[in-house]
Each structure stands twice: as C-alpha cells, then as structure tokens.
Specification:
single chain; alpha+beta; Immunoglobulin-like
C-alpha cells in the first residue's frame, strides 16, 4: 500500500513545530558552550604551560633621581610561587632587604638606603614559577639611577656677613628635606653657644637655629654642619660646610612684649608693648 504524501503543514504538525522552533534549543546550547569556552580559556592558558609574566614594575627602566628609599615593586599577571621569585631577585650593586607580598602576584622589596647618585640594576634570574609549575626561563633586568645627596643651599647669615644682630636667629637651607634628629647632632656654633634647632613648618629643607642667649657683640662666629646631617631618605650630607660671620653691636629690641606683676601670684599686672 502506498502511503499518501504529507503536506508541509501536516509534517509541521506531526513533527513538533516549525524549523525555527526546533532549532531554538540548539542555538541556546551553542551560546552556552561559547560562554563556557570564554571563561575557561584564560584558565586553560595558565594551567597548560603559560609562565607568569611581569606586567608592571618600579622604579621604571631608565628612571633617574630615584629616591634611595623607594622600594622595588614587581607585579605579575597571575599568582606565583613566592619563594621561587624571592630567591632569584637581587640588586647590583648588592644590598640587603626584606620582601613582602601585598597580594599573591605583587612583590614589594623594602631595602636599606641605597647609595646616592648611583646606577642600580634590578635582576630577576630565570627559573621562577607559578603554582602549576610553569617556569619562566628568561632573565629579567632593568636599571635606574638614584638621587644625589643633600647639600647646603644657603644660610642666614651668609658666609662672611658682618654686623649681624646678636639677637638674630640663624638658618641653614638644604637642597632636600632633612631629618631634625640628625641636625641636632650635626650642627655646632663656635665659640660655643647653647642653641635649639627646629625645621621651618612651611619648608622642611630649612633649619632654624635659635641661640639660647644673645650672641656676643662684635664677635666672630663659625656655624658648622657636618656629614652627620641626613635627609628624610637617609642620605648623608655631601660634605661638611662652615659659615663664618661677625656680630655687630647690641641693637634695641623691636616689637617686643613683656608682662609684669606687682607680687607673686597677684592677678594684677602691667603689659608693656614696644610697637616700634
């Protein structure tokens, strides 16, 4: 018996819907597979032999005037075996330091104060790896130059100044911000005069030296600063400097204010103001 041929409409009803309806689930499956591949491809690249790559570092290659206290920083594209990196990182000239890891792929190497005005090379020897055993076989290295040492830029009074007010404060201005504690040990006045030293609140390159008493009138003095003076990065002064000056006669005080009382503990008193 010959079966009658079904019409297209009859086949559509018997076969479960139109071609578009039948292909819908297939298209969804294809889209889902593509999304899964997009997610897995980076993981597969790492797991299948891609060694960790350096994506950022500092100081940058060829940098100059780099702070002698600036740490070495290296960032990788994925997590690394930290011990394998630490054992292969070193500086030329050699120095000591301590590595730390803010994240599993970023190394910060805190080192001792580097030499001033010196070329340095950061070297990461081949053989470091990630946690999957993927090994980088390249030797990475780059160079930079550190900042120069601090020096004395100017002073008040200047060298060879004469007729300096015996009541005046003295000052020294350096090329870099300085450590106050080091200045207290590095400064001297001759003939000896007790003094205090502080940094200018508006400019920590400027040290203000305040003698505890008036300087002797018509006297030659030498204000010296030695190489024990250190800047905020730990660099010693390039060389000691001496400033020689001569005081003049005692001058009347200007703009001073004083307060006197009639008796100890008495609330009554008298303000005296010299407005000139």
């Amino acid at each position: 018996m010959v079966r009658p041929r079904l019409t297209w409409r009859q086949a559509e009803l018997a076969g479960g819907g139109s071609q578009r309806e039948r292909e819908g689930p297939k298209n969804l499956r294809l889209l889902g597979a593509a999304a899964l591949i997009a997610v897995l491809m980076p993981l597969a690249a790492t797991a299948c032999g891609g060694p960790p790559q350096i994506v950022d570092y500092s100081p940058q290659r060829g940098a100059v005037d780099v702070s002698t206290a600036a740490p070495i920083q290296i960032t990788f594209d994925h997590d690394v075996d930290q011990a394998s990196v630490e054992s292969r990182l070193h500086l030329v000239p050699a120095g000591t330091g301590t590595p730390r890891w803010p994240t599993a792929r970023q190394l910060v190497y805190d080192h001792e104060t580097l030499r001033a005005n010196t070329p340095y090379e950061v070297v990461l020897e081949p053989g470091y790896r990630d946690h999957s055993g993927n090994v980088d076989t390249l030797r990475h290295h780059w160079s930079f130059v550190t900042e120069g040492p601090p020096s004395l830029a100017s002073s008040t009074p200047a060298n060879a100044d004469a007729a300096v007010d015996p009541a005046a404060y003295l000052a020294m201005t350096f090329t870099r911000a300085m450590q106050l504690s080091s200045l207290k040990n590095a400064l001297t006045i001759s003939p000896a005069v007790p003094f205090d030293v502080r940094l200018d609140p508006s400019d920590n390159r400027r040290a203000i030296i305040a003698p505890s008493r008036l300087l002797t009138p018509n006297q030659k003095y030498v204000l010296q600063v030695g190489e024990a003076a250190i800047d905020v990065d730990g660099n010693a002064l390039d060389r000691g400097r001496a400033v020689t000056f001569t005081t003049g006669p005692v001058r009347p005080l200007h703009g001073w204010i004083t307060f006197t009382t009639s008796a100890a503990g008495s609330p009554a008193g008298l303000w005296l103001v010299n407005e000139s």
